[in-house]
Amino acid sequence: MQPVAVRAGAALLLSAFLMSAQTTGLKIVVLEGQGAINNVRERRAKEPVVQVEDDGNVPVPEATVTFQLPDNGPSGIFGTGERMLTIVTDAKGQAVGRGLKPNQVVGRFGIRITVSYRGETASTTIFQTNAAPAGAAASSGGGSKKFLWIALVGGAAAGGLVAARGHGSSSQSVTVVPPGTVLVPNTPVFQPPH
Question: Are β-strands 49-53 and 146-152 bridged in parallel, bridged antiparallel, or unpaired?
Answer without folding.
Answer: unpaired
